[in-house]
Amino acid sequence: MADTLRLDLLDLGNFEIDINAATLIEEELALRYKVIPVALDGEKLLVAMTDPVNVLAIDDIQIITGRQVMPAVATETDVIAAIKKYLRQNANVEEMMESVAGDMGAGGAEADGEEDRELGQAPVVKLVNLILTEAVRNRANDVHIEPQDKDVRIRFRIDGVLHEMMRSPKKVQNGIVSRIKILANMDIAEKRVPQDGRFGVVVEGMACDFRVATLPTVYGEKIVLRLLGKEAILMDLNDLGFTDDCLNRFKSSFAKPYGAMLVTGPTGSGKTTTLYAALNILNDLEKNLITVEDPVEYRLPGINQVQVNIKADLTFAAALRSILRHDPDIVMIGEIRDEETAMIAIESALTGHLVLSTLHTNDAASSLTRLIEMGIEPFLASSAVDCVVAQRLARKLCDHCKEGYKPTKKALDEIDFPIPESKIDVVYRARGCKKCNNTGYKGRIGLYEVLLISENIERLVVQRATSDQLNKVALAEGMRTLRHDGFLKVISGMTSIEEIMRVTT
Questions:
Q1: pTM
Q2: Is 374 helix (H, G, I), strand (E, B) or coil?
Q3: Which of the 8 DSSP states describes residue 290?
Q4: Are 96 and 210 in contact (CB under 8 A)?
Q5: How many CB atoms within 10 Å of residue 102?
Q6: Cβ distance 357 to 456 under 8 Å?
Q7: d(CA 466, CA 235)
Q8: What is the CA radius of gyration of the chain?
Q9: Contact 497, 403 (CB under 8 A)
Q10: Buried/exposed 462-480: b ≥16 CB within 10 Å, e otherwise
Q11: DSSP line for 302-366
């Protein structure tokens, strides 16, 4: 079409759209004609259009803006994405709060009464709504609202890395904090101690749950909101990034009717998502599944989920002691934090239950020594634990801008790359484009280290061997390290060497 009409063809994903030009028209008009202004040149306005011969659209835009329209061609997908990104911020955002209620634990009382309806139009409310909307659109994992000396910094953690998105005036700090506390059903008068809460919203037809945590700082209360997308509970193990051999090793462990399966890694490494993906496979009418979590991040149908409540003395250990009297087949423990919880979990695994849980250790072998440090007898730990999965999340390269190159032998030798340079045709590195916000990465993929407890490893655990000794035997028996698994994903073009070096040791 562009060739025929002798017009420019715009790739809006890589085009620097002028926000001042884009906001000259309303979202309704842009969606009706599938157009968006992208640049200003004096009295001329460059407009990306899916139908550049639509005279009515051109006339309407010229009348509204008072500028001469210069049409250009763009794909419908790019135009709609640009409209959502640049124009919907200015639209009425109240609709996304309609689900702040009910089973998500939201404080929706402000929806009642004339005074509260007026509050819904307040600038601070629209600012909070805008922050939540942009977080969802940018695929953020966490939102950090951080009071500074003279303003408020707002950062999004996207694909595991923090990016500063905006700064707000200091005078709206208390309003932002109070608004979020109201949504999360928290005490807005209490500013001296940390609080936790949660609420839900619907953004562009997608339900999202936000977990909220406050922390008093010298400049005011810092707030972190963690986005819990509903699609995460539907994740399949095959979509997480397991290679075939790692996945087969992992599945062999939870296919057994009893034993303990541990998933380990730092905070934010995807441990809970992995456990939920396993539970989706295990969940059927013939089994009684009970979980103990702090907090319950995702609601799963057909599973009995227990929320830890420290104030009511409902700890992990207390909940476990009770649920074992409820005839469970499978028990998931959000985290093993202390000796009592660890002992109940190990005993449950030894008495006919399949136990799934998480630990915070750097690698798979360290999990066994960590249990022993907690006070579990070595012979119990070695007998009960059947499998340990260590994991990390690495950023995936952007498919639109990743750059291929041939690495040198010296560079590969320095990082102990497992595949000879002569057998590598090309690997990829990050470059950056508009589609990935110039980061070079978009999305994340899991790196996995699956340790199966063999007789040799059991023997070493009983002998109180170090994690290094356990690791050597596991490698000899076929385990692949996190870094090795990451390098295989480099060869397949999913990520870069630099990213694997960043997230693994």
A1: 0.72
A2: helix
A3: E
A4: no
A5: 9
A6: no
A7: 35
A8: 26
A9: no
A10: eeebebebbbebbeeeebb
A11: T-EEEE-BTTTTB-HHHHHHHHGGG--SEEEES---SHHHHHHHHHHHHTT-EEEEEE--SSHHH
Residue whose entry in the numeric block shows the structure tokens 């456990």: 275
Number of CB atoms found within 10 A of residue 66's CB = 10
Beta strands 151-158 and 161-169, pairing class: antiparallel
- H or E element that contains 162: strand 161-169
Token output for 265? 């890694």
Which residues is 429 bridged to in the sheet?
A: 403
Token pair listed for 458: 């059991």
CB atoms within 10 A of CB 322: 13
* Residue 335 exposed, middle or buried by CB count within 10 Å (0-12, 13-18, 19+): middle
Q: DSSP state, 421?
A: G
For the chain, residues with pLDDT lower than 70 are 88-122, 204, 229-234
Integer angstrom CA distances of residue 26 from 31, 42, 204, 258, 444: 9, 21, 17, 60, 35
How many residues can be counted in the chain?
505
Of 205, 158, 182, 186, the closest CA to residue 443 belongs to 158
> How far is 306 from 313, CA to CA, in rounded Å?
13
Q: Report the first-to-last Cα separation within the chain, whole angstroms.
A: 52
CA-CA distance, 268 to 503, in Å (whole number)? 12
